[in-house]
Amino acid sequence: MRTSLIRSLAGVVVAAAAVLALAGPANAAPAHPRVHTTLSIVESRNVIKPGQKDVISGRLVADHYGLGHRIVFLDRWYGRWVPVRVGLTGPKGWISFAVWPHVTARYLLVYLGNQTFAPTHSGVVTVRVVP
Fold first, then answer.
1. Residue 55's domain is classified under what CATH number?
2. CA 39 to chain centre
3. Rounded Cα–Cα distance for residues 61 and 122 (Å)
4. So what's the pLDDT on residue 114?
5. Percent helix, strand and coil across the chain, each rounded to 5?
6. Can you name the residues that pair with 114 across neighbouring β-strands?
7. What is the mean pLDDT of residues 80-99?
8. Residue 82's pLDDT is what?
9. What is the pLDDT of residue 74?
10. Residue 99 β-bridge partners
């Protein structure tokens, strides 16, 4: 009888420990959600000749304010999105990349976020290249 009581008590202790481990500490601070961000994109020219320059620009914004000095990637579609350039936004969140595609190319701007601001990406622009 005593052995079965000890086994039952041990099972209750293990179950209680598991519940406490899953629940976490009672004084843990709640995690605050990250601030929503948006990233616009625009191209300076819709159609270019092979090797001509085009400029891809955008603005990173949170709560209607530009986010300055943040890292933004310019991705190009090669069957999957591949980062081709990286840069810092200006003081008001603006960023521009010069590109010289030889064939029609699709581009996207990407912000990976941090502890305060949520990640985001822009829409897609297509730079058409015609001979």
1. 2.60.40.10
2. 10
3. 11
4. 95
5. 15, 45, 40
6. none
7. 97
8. 97
9. 98
10. 54
In a domain? residue 115: yes
Question: In whole angstroms, what is the distance from residue 103 CA to residue 94 CA?
Answer: 26
Where does 24-82 have alpha helices with state H? Answer: none
Q: What is the largest CA-CA distance in the chain?
A: 92
Q: How many domains does the chain have?
A: 1
Q: Is residue 24 part of a domain?
A: no
Residue 77 lies in a domain: yes
**C-alpha atoms less than 13 angstroms from C-alpha of 105 in its C-beta half-sphere:** 26
Residue type, 24: G
Question: How far from 126 is each of 37, 78, 99, 102, 103, CA to CA, in Å?
Answer: 23, 13, 12, 13, 11
Does residue 118 form part of some domain? yes
Which residues, other chains included, contact 86 with Cβ-Cβ below 8 Å and sequence gap of 6+?
A: 71, 72, 73, 74
Q: The domain containing residue 61 runs over which residues? A: 38-129
Task: Calculate mean pLDDT across residues 71-95.
Answer: 97
- The 10s digit of each residue's pLDDT in 92-108 is 999 999 999 999 999 99
Average pLDDT, the chain: 85
For residue 10, what is the enclosing H or E element?
Answer: helix 2-23
